[in-house]
């Protein structure tokens, strides 16, 4: 093979979301690299499925692209090999066609159960409950990601005859099967993930263990000598170590791949093991006489695959069991050698979580962006600069009093305890970038110290690890590598192809397969690795003796925090609130080790432990004060105690508990207690703790509807008030004569009505600020308080000045609520029903108008309409609904998007889970990640968010907020000028033309309002089905027709005074038609659209601009409409008809569709430079491709094609680490 320098080899890596093809030459140089996405289906929240057809198509495209990139002829390719995630692929024994893994209705193409699929949780428990000795070779118990639980699930859910026709493959073996037609299995897949025992193990003979299969309920697999799962080796099956030749590439596969038939195909491996192959062969000087290339030296090398999670792979020639470490696995890489697999859960996710949950994250991200470097590089530079300014010899000295334990997702190795949690010593109230950097460093140090713990544990059991070979995305962090090397006291080697180590390793397997049967001497895997591995980069441990001593001391504290945690967790608290082992009350101020500790009892929160330690307390003693109390959260003094410098300590940290949400109080007061109780979204007395999914959404809709009901009631109330004789006389508007009212001061009457709109204009700006700054619930209470004050002043008004001020205050309250309620409703509703959610609220708006009208109508008959009760009571009645609102709102959940924006991620996820359903946690998590992605993007932007900057587009970048402001303002103005106010004002004239007297006119107007309310239900049904644009289009067309006909028919009645009745009745029917169409279309959309289209950080302020448009439209119309009607009469209706016609092309050209899109996706619709909708849609498609983590990955039956939409679901699985 050495003489054929023109030969090349292809390694194919199939990850969770993509297939990568890597072409290398005979020296191991990568000459071509290409990637193609893979589809994943999620037919159920726990199900993740793929298709071997789709995977194979992606592989074929990637191979052709890589060869083209390398500029090679396909004939130069001599070998091919695969690695893949440990997913289960199913084929028919009889036809070799894919078999559906999704039940009777599943697509047969979807024949792969992905590694992160959780459908087989119950089956996993059943298998592990047997305690069979086979399980000791898979870490003491099978994981749900392994393949035997998935096969058992299929047996339990599949027709027996269909199950008997199935053949089961690990995905890597399935790909070699598709490439060659052979049914060969790799030792790597069956031993590591399926319970197959290799020859030479201490328990049993080689092969499948019938006793084990009988105990777990899969005895059927023994039929036909285990043919369904690979058969018996040497009889009806064949099992190979990594890279051994499976067979030649078939003609069919060669044609599809664009390669020559007959080239060698090697036995594949699980992706993490391909990473080992591509990593540990690096030729480096390890302090010996020269580079060591002997296979015996492999037992000294640990492969550290570090991405979202971290995987540790070590090899030995002896069967060595280590608690918390999977394996030992024999023959999976080299014949006769064992591989052990340790792991750290979600290390990359831990770093991200620590940084992004800190209060200083947004500021830090902005500074990093200004510097033009990554966030982690910025923090590393910041720490070094801080060390320099503090005259510290090394960065580690900055954190000598800070101790961080980060098992937030449980411990994978070496404790193997899923109940382990995080702990911090040294908490401060500091929210600066400096404090964020300290927490960030603590997370890095924890990862390094735990790596040493795993290495030490393995070495104590007989391993001889002396060098770490590291790959994955975390190798970009030089500070982390330095800490790992220094804590473990051994060099860290980073391979040259650090980001392609996996497919590089697979290509080496291809080269090994090509050497077998080539007419030349066959190469073993180590020889191939020696020949093709690149030198890599070496990073040595610190040479600073002080840093070495400090890290050793930190390691001792780390071990104390680790091993004392399970013991402390066993302590309990009785129902009276006293710790059983020391009798200290949890409801009093404790003084432990001269440190102030204040504890606040809060119900139904995640358990955590709190300890305090003075500087004199030894590491071995500090944990003895621990308290583990389910149902309580603890506020810790982070300010020191009487100058002694004592810091707060918190144990039991979980990933759902961001650090900035830790409550820091120097004293607990009733105010603190009340605010904490009101702010906790998971309190048991809140509605979200008792209701979920549709029932919770209905409850939220009732709250929002109550506010909108008040809005409608307030609009309709003044019509009845203005008809009150007592009110007209009290306010000096006119007089009553012969039973009728004559208004002499129309300007004052109009001013009292119109000043309300000035109040809403002021209120909407106030509401937008309060809502974005303090939350949607706080803004609801704030608006209700203003409304109560305004209503109380109105109903006691004694003169017009008093009434004007009262109306202004009342308008402010309405404006605050109008700026908040649509945003609140849209942020809690699911994107598929968001329009219906808001439309239902505006049904209640018109119901409020109806109630106000008929209440005023009925009160006309009290004391013949002369009593002040007629107008004071309807005004005072507002207070009832506002009191219900201001009291009830605290029982309702805050917007999860606002909670996430303000750093309260744990509460945001809790609310989101309750809204989407507790059983749908995975989908809620993906939606949460989508929200977080937008929050991160917005946090990194430098755009100004004042109203002034929003209106004029100053420093707005690509967000184009000014364009959105203009759209919502003009949409509301178009709504006002579409004619609803004109119809309301001119309707009595039309009814008079029809011959109706004043009494009948009032009845007809009241019935029209009821008709109006029922019409809004049409919008509830249609708005999400046909979209916002079509709703506006057909509404404008229908309203234009009604307006033109109403105006023409009214003119006909005027021109025919002797026969006015039929003309008037026909015109009246057009009034009803207009009201119906308006209620079904334009009433809702102008209020919904502003709540959808603005970025999260200014959503409430953006909605406030919509209220501005409504205030300007209504205010201007109220002032000028009497003069317009006086000038042109019924022709005013024709003007409104023309406005409706003009609205159609305006909506078509400038208003993009928001229906069936998440709020995060809608944000991308306005990134285009052009304001036209076609440009917006084109840019949207481009951005969705660039930012798939903001796509609708959570949608049922959806397809998402990148790993970002997947690896967040379960960060504990190692398969993701190679692809980050």
TrEMBL record:
Principal place of residence: membrane
Keyword match Transport: yes
Record key words, sorted: Kinase, Membrane, Transferase, Transmembrane, Transmembrane helix, Transport
GO-annotated cellular components: cytoplasm; membrane
Transmembrane segments: 696-713, 747-770, 777-799, 805-824, 836-855, 875-892, 967-991, 1003-1023, 1030-1050, 1070-1090, 1102-1126, 1132-1151
Domain of life according to the entry: Eukaryota
Record-linked PANTHER family: FGGY CARBOHYDRATE KINASE DOMAIN-CONTAINING PROTEIN, RIBULOKINASE
Name of the protein in its database record: Carbohydrate kinase, FGGY
